């Protein structure tokens, strides 16, 4: 089971295991805001399984711009949707092929399904007569949030600001 960790200002900070969350609560570093069903069983105590915890002290998060693009990052940015046909993407494609001078930047990489990737090969969009469904871009500021917040658990929803959750 996973637990949502909120900073002292109630913004999502991380997602940790229920065991790690229970340790933070037992050490007095956090409070439980929501519980899950089954408790954590320890040799001498039953601990409620936390679903959401709130840290008592504010943790300053240093947010840097997005780093170098990765396959995982591009798929997450594009929500695993093919930029050519809209199908389910499992790979990444260079819009301008590397063989034609394209680079591996956020603005040239796109989530792509296998069939479109094979059909495109090292051709340009003009040669194929294709157009992009979405323009590749540098990810927005919120991509530092844990990937688990892309599909949050129902019990977390009251604690998440809809504008702050990736989507």
Automatic annotation (TrEMBL):
<dbReference type="Pfam" id="PF14279">
    <property type="entry name" value="HNH_5"/>
</dbReference>
<keyword id="KW-0540">Nuclease</keyword>
<protein>
    <submittedName>
        <fullName>HNH endonuclease</fullName>
    </submittedName>
</protein>
<feature type="domain" description="HNH nuclease">
    <location>
        <begin position="69"/>
        <end position="118"/>
    </location>
</feature>
<dbReference type="InterPro" id="IPR029471">
    <property type="entry name" value="HNH_5"/>
</dbReference>
<keyword id="KW-0255">Endonuclease</keyword>
<keyword id="KW-0378">Hydrolase</keyword>
<dbReference type="GO" id="GO:0004519">
    <property type="term" value="F:endonuclease activity"/>
</dbReference>
<dbReference type="InterPro" id="IPR052892">
    <property type="entry name" value="NA-targeting_endonuclease"/>
</dbReference>
<dbReference type="InterPro" id="IPR003615">
    <property type="entry name" value="HNH_nuc"/>
</dbReference>
């Amino acid at each position: 089971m996973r637990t949502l960790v909120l900073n002292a200002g109630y913004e999502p900070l991380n997602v940790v295991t229920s065991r790690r969350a229970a340790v933070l609560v037992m050490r007095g570093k956090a409070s439980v805001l929501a519980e899950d069903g089954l408790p954590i069983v320890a040799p001498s105590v039953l601990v409620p399984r936390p679903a959401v915890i709130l840290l008592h002290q504010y943790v300053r998060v240093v947010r840097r711009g997005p780093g170098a693009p990765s396959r995982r990052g591009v798929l997450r940015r594009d929500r695993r949707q093919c930029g050519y046909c809209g199908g389910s993407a499992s790979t990444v494609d260079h819009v301008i092929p590397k063989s034609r001078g394209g680079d591996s930047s956020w603005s040239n990489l796109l989530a792509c399904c296998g069939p479109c990737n094979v059909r495109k090969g090292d051709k340009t969009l003009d040669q194929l007569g294709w157009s992009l469904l979405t323009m590749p871009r540098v990810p927005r500021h919120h991509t530092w949030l844990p990937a688990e917040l892309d599909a949050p658990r129902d019990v977390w929803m009251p604690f998440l600001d809809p504008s702050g959750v990736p989507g």
